[in-house]
Every structure is written in structure tokens, then in C-alpha cells.
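Z., the sequence and structure:
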Amino acid sequence: MGKLKKILFGSLIGTMIIGSLPSYAYASEIINASVEAHYSSNRISWNKIGNHDTYNVYRVGDDDTKLSLITTVDGLEYIDNDAGVNTQERYVIKCATDESIQSSVVRDSYKTGIEAVQGYAAAELNNFHVSLLGGNEKFDGTKVLSFSQNINQLKEIKQGTVLISFRSDKDKIVNNREILLNIKDKTAVTPSDNALTGSPNPENCISFTQADTNVLRYDIGNGLLRYNVENVTEENSWITYGLTTYTEGTTSYFKNRVNGKDGVNYNHSGAYLNNFLNNSAITNLDFLTIGGAINNGVNSAGFKGEIVYVTITDEVMSEKEVEDYTVL
């Protein structure tokens, strides 16, 4: 059996600040700016200076002296949606009414794209990312990997994306549920019977399960939300399953994608708007397992196949972005 190669937990990797402040800027008039990279955008934020309310946001060219004005902002942050994928844009912030007051040249230590999404998912307390065995961890139906550090923070996520990349064993027959990802209150007992005809998850128990040879099931628990995504698996093929959820007004949207392609989508009004992936019933999550469930110290509902990684991020990802995660 392969061992877990690395778990990307840790403190938030700080924004890299390069360049120097102009000699005329006093310590009390320094703009402290930072950049947080996302899939195809950058979030730039900065501190307020005195009575200044309006700031100019500049993109920095190859030469630190070449600045291009992007926009003028009334506030303390700006989302650059034109950053693109796999870029590392640099920025300078200046007070609009006194451009002698400015920040250093700033950029994120991550490039936009998969690197940024997985990096922040690994580093932030309310996100999660794990890469298994440098690419693919083999599960035989008895092995289950357990994670608990900061998992209770996942319940704070109100929107986001779950990504699971896996390949089922060739020619296997799924009689009872095989769990890819289980997130729950440690005391909750995850069922191990047939996922299509058996028991629903109890409260405070979320699972992503291979329910049949060619069906994935998402089960929030307590009978609130169970649905199937059909025609998912292909013999001996890698699959990246993505569940993206977000809320607009009083409606929550659950979008299922397989290798980036639109799958079964569900809309819910009112009842799924509070926390982890819009599930208002979750009050405690402190235990996360991959490759099966652990009930009272006993492994159950084990998956047979390989899993590359599991990512839970608060980014609402598009079909194209999920497709880019697909293992070829």
C-alpha cells in the first residue's frame, strides 16, 4: 500500500512583496497592499490611509516603472478579472488624490490557476486539499485515510466546489456503497449498505459515494438531500467529479460536473443557505475520511480503485475550470 505522500495543510502562505517604497513616503503614509490569486483572477486589497477614500489600481509591466492604470476604486479592494490563468500579475496601489502615497509592487506567491486554488485550499483553515501518493493512492476496499485538523472549519463554507479525482478498479461490481469522501461528526455512523436502496446518512454526515458501477451519489444526511449522478465512471478511466454550489437570493444551486461537463443540477429554495455547501442542517463537522468511512474506529464502505486528490475550496468554479482539473 502506498503511504500518504503529503498533506498540504499549513498556515497561509504570505503574499510576496517586491520592489521598494519611494523615499518620499512617510511610514504613516505607506499603503500596505496584498494580492490573493484565484483561478483566473486576483483579489487586491489594501489599508486605508488617513482621509483618503479613493485609490488608483495599476498593473506593473516588465519594468517596475511601467504602470498601466486599471481602475479607480472607492474602497479597499479590487478584483482583477482579467488576470488570466497561470499568470503572476504585479500591482501598485496609489491614493487617487495624492499619488505620492503608494504601495510597493505586490504580487501573490502563487500563479493563478490550479496552483492558486489548491494552494489556498491547503493553507486556509476553512478549505481543504490533499494530494495522494504524488498522484494516485491505491484503495483496496479496506484502507481508509483519516484527516481531522481544522476540519470543523469546513462548516463555515457557504459556497464553493468539491473536486474528487479517481479511477475505479477495472471490472469491479459495486454491490454496497463505496465512499470516496466522508465528512461528518465523528460520532455519526455512516451507513455501509446499498446506497440506492439502503439507509440515508444520519444528520451531520456528508458523503460522496460510488453507489453503483456507474453512479455517484451525494448525500447531505438526515434525509434532506440525496441525489444520483449517472453515467459517471468509464472502465479504467480517470474521472474528476466536481460539485459546485452557490446561492443567489433565496435559491441554492447544486451543479454536478464530470470531467468538466455539465451533469445533474439541482436548485433548492430556502433550506440550504447557511453553511457547508449551503446545508443548513450541519451543526458539527470534525472528521474527514477518504476512501471509505470510519465508524467507532472500524473502517467500512471502502472504495476500490485509485484517488489522485480531494480539493474543497470556497471558489465557485466554472465548467472549464473543473475540466482543467481532469486527470488525462
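The longest strand covers residues 239-248. Residues 114-123 form the longest helix (10 residues).

Let me know what you think.
H.
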